Amino acid sequence: MADTPTRTTAGTAGKNGPAAWRNWAGNVTATPARTVAPRSVGELQEAVRRAAEQGLRVKAVGTGHSFTAAAATDGVLVRPQALSGIREIDRAAGTVTVAAGTVLKDLNRALAADGLSLTNMGDIMEQTVAGATSTGTHGTGRDSASLSTQIRGLELVTADGGLLKCSGKENPEVFAAARIGIGALGIVTSLTFAVEPVFFLTAREEPMGFDRVTAEFDQHFAENEHFEFYWFPHTGNCNTKRNNRSQGPAAPPGAVSAWIEDELLSNGVFQAVNSLGRAVPAAIPSIARVASRALSARTYTDIPYKVFTSPRRVRFVEMEYALPRERVVEALRELKAVVDRSGMRISFPVEVRTAPADDIALSTASGRETAYIAVHMYRGTPYQAYFTAAERIFTEYGGRPHWGKVHTRDAEYFERVYPRFGEFTALRDRLDPDRLFGNDYLRRVLGG
Fold this sequence. Notes:
Structural class: alpha+beta
Shape: globular
Oligomer: single chain
Helix content: 25-40%
């Protein structure tokens, strides 16, 4: 039992009715019966028990950076932001234990201040640690995999209000699946990550033609620890990024250069040109040709989070599929051909990244070497035709959609493309037989 009442925040029914929740991109909304912000694990447990007694479903939501309705609910919406901060750093074990509502940005900065770092990470750090890992957030890597593969332990509030501690030794069957649980197994309260002494990465960014980068993709992948590239639709132009460990010292981009590349071109001007493209779609191909030539080659060295991540203030909607790595170039060429011969106007670049195979049941890289293709559209721009065309190509290659990004697949499809799908759903049946943590999205992707 909690010592103090759980705070009830926006979403509580009042004279104007319950308040709506909206995700970062604005493409998902929900109206929960109430929203709670527990200040302790005990308060969270009590909120879960109370919801069960009232016949209300429960979902936790982080910062809303998912593009799917994975966290949407008409029941009790849990905001875990008060459950934040580092609980313990174990230097001997090489781990950090952090509360679930901690934002990745805060974790990365705190670790760096202690001379530590995660091994790999995605390209934004605005998500909570629980939200990012529950949906399978990843960066790019030849040998190092997603954020979830770096988890060494976790705690989970289950449907009966109990607290389940999981690791490779304690409740290992739950740990094996819950590292990417889409919120279906319970509410994560803390995560223990593997960390290492902070290191330097040297980033080399270089424009490159589409035909060259696709022809040399396997070579770039083999030669670099972290390789990714962006193709600008309506052009034959790409921008590549190669990150590799180095001895240092730090040599970050100059203040003016960083502002031009990361703030002006990638956010300020990009916002303006996308707004223009939304208003005048016919202008997009010309804009794309100019934009794809605006970014210049540069090389810089810094600690990991300053190299892996970058600000993303232009809002968009995204679909991303994980494909067998050996098929990604073929699929990307098909996508380019579809865009080239269609009347679609695409103002956002297409992103390609990689990941090694891992052993997590619902990981998009589960059991196979993987490459990702991500397509985006500016927020407020119709995206259905483009995403439908892309998804048709991706599914032909047995693609697995990112759990937090737009897709139309269902449980029947996932049962075919995930060898361990049944293992996860059986665990869900055991931990949450009454679907306290369910919602419409989970019903679609995991089945009833």
